[in-house]
Amino acid sequence: MSGPWLDDDQQQTWRAWLDVYARLFARLSRELQADSGLSLQDYDVLVALTDEPDRSVRMRDLGVSLQWEKSRLSKHVTRMAARGLVARRECADDRRGAFVDITEAGLEAIRAAAPAHAALVKEVFFDGLDPEQVRELGAICAGVLERLSAE
User: Fold this and answer.
1) Cα separation of the two ends of the chain
2) DSSP string covering 62-120, please?
3) pLDDT tens digits in sequence order for the chain, 151 residues long
4) Which of 8, 66, 74, 116 is most open to solvent, judged by the fewest CB atoms within 10 Å of its CB?
5) Which Pfam families does the record associate with it (predicted)?
6) How much is the pTM?
7) φ, ψ dihedrals at 38, nearest 5°
């Protein structure tokens, strides 16, 4: 079938994907909050910072990696800084720029939250898949991400 419409299999798969995404996001968010007091967005910011060798990243680069708008990131980082999880630092080279640094409290929070969060991801997402399905899913996701990156 050509044209703009999805065929029946595509429609069913797309709706299933949307349902999986919504339910997975809700479950991960709910359990992460209950277990650690972190939101999934807090966790995403902290993971991005721990992925950096010096545990610091420019705000604009963090926004790009998380796919967040500037105002959303700024407000969220401000809330996290108020809780002591991150610190905002001005950029000496660029008066308009800033860095976000993870604090010791942020490191402790992510270290405490990560094991239960990873166990939940494994349980609800990966435990029903065999290794070949995991590789296939990884390849599918990589292909979609490649097409999205071509924008």
Assistant:
1) 25
2) HHHHHT--HHHHHHHHHHHHHTTSEEEEE-SS-TT-EEEEE-HHHHHHHHHHHHHHHHH
3) 467 899 999 999 999 999 999 999 999 999 999 999 999 999 999 999 999 999 999 999 999 999 999 999 999 999 999 999 999 998 777 767 899 999 999 999 999 999 999 999 999 999 999 999 999 999 999 999 999 998 7
4) 8
5) MarR_2
6) 0.89
7) -95, 145
CATH for 8-149, options being 1.10.510.10, 1.10.10.10, 1.10.1040.10, 3.40.640.10: 1.10.10.10
Q: Residue 43 has which token pair? A: 């966790």
Q: Which residue has the tokens 């990884």?
A: 138
Domain map (residue ranges) of the chain = 8-149
Structure tokens at 99: 């860095």
